[in-house]
Structures are given as structure tokens and as C-alpha cells.
Design brief:
The chain is α+β, with helices and mostly antiparallel strands. It has helices at about 5-10, 20-45, 50-65, 100-105, 110-120, 125, 130-145; strands spanning about 65-75, 75-80, 85-90, 95. The protein has two domains: about 5-45; about 50-125, no CATH class. It contains seven helices and four strands.
Length: about 160
């Protein structure tokens, strides 16, 4: 089991023996009280990138020291990893790398960092991390759904 489901199960432990409607109502009110608390914490955060992804980016920056980038064409680089001599193709315009770390995780890998350093462009300009403020706007739109009149047609 993962940490999310274990945390959820420990939270609803007191209401698991209740009827399903009562349990669901408790979960709904719990989440309604938790969201404003988390939004307050998020609004107090000053950085653009959250702490854990930022830590991961710095780790990739440190590991990019043994990577050597060679320019291929506009926004494309061949990056050779120093110890293993493996070669990776980085495309900065399409935000891809042949190691697929950037595609899967969304955080630039060490090969991308080496290519950005070769191009001498500020790192924040070339990354595709989602800004924090758009996440806040998205979560607030989820909490305030637009009420639409729906009709149910039975046949």
C-alpha cells in the first residue's frame, strides 16, 4: 500500500464502523475543513516551486556536472554522461529527453540541465514546472463548482 491510502485509512478509522452515508458525510466535512487550512499554508509559501521538487531540481543540477552537451540544432543537444559515456538527446523546444525522466516526472533531468547550461539561458526560463499560483486557482475552481441545471431523461 502507498502512503496516501494508509494516511486516508488512519484518518477515517473512527468512522469506518458507521453506516456508509454517515461515513461519507464525515469524510466530506473533514475535507471541507482541510482544504482552507491547506490553502492558507499554500498562500504563505513564497517560492514558485514547492520544496520537494525544488530539492529534486538541485539534486539534478549537482549530478549534471559530469554531463557534456553538444549542440545539434535549434534547441536540440546530444548530452554525454561522463562516467558511463551514455548519450542522450535533449530537445528543449519540445521538452523531451531520451532518458524520459523529464517526460515521466515533469522535473528536468541532469541531461536537460547540462543542455541549458550549455545554452547559457537562465534555468527558470527553460523549465516547464507549473507555476504555484495556477495550482491555487485550479483548486479554488474545484471547490466552487458552477451549478448547472441537469435534466435526467428516463426511457
Amino acid at each position: 500500500m502507498n502512503n496516501l491510502s494508509e494516511s486516508f485509512n488512519s484518518t477515517i478509522l473512527l468512522t469506518r464502523d458507521k453506516p456508509i452515508i454517515t461515513m461519507m458525510e464525515w469524510i466530506r466535512t473533514y475535507l471541507m475543513s482541510r482544504f482552507p487550512h491547506l490553502r492558507e499554508k499554500l498562500s504563505a509559501y513564497t517560492s514558485v516551486v514547492m520544496h520537494k521538487p525544488n530539492k529534486s531540481i538541485y539534486r539534478e543540477i549537482e549530478k549534471s556536472g559530469n554531463c557534456f552537451a553538444v549542440w545539434i540544432s535549434d534547441g536540440m543537444f546530444e548530452v554525454t554522461q561522463g562516467f558511463t559515456m551514455e548519450k542522450f538527446i535533449v530537445d528543449l523546444t519540445n521538452h523531451t529527453c531520451t532518458c524520459y525522466f523529464w517526460d515521466l516526472v515533469g522535473i528536468p533531468c541532469r541531461h536537460v540541465v547540462a543542455a541549458i547550461n550549455f545554452e547559457k539561458i537562465p534555468f527558470a526560463q527553460k523549465t516547464t514546472m507549473k507555476p504555484l499560483k495556477s495550482s491555487i486557482e485550479y483548486s479554488s475552481s474545484l471547490l466552487n463548482p458552477k451549478t448547472e441545471k441537469k435534466t435526467l431523461i428516463l426511457k
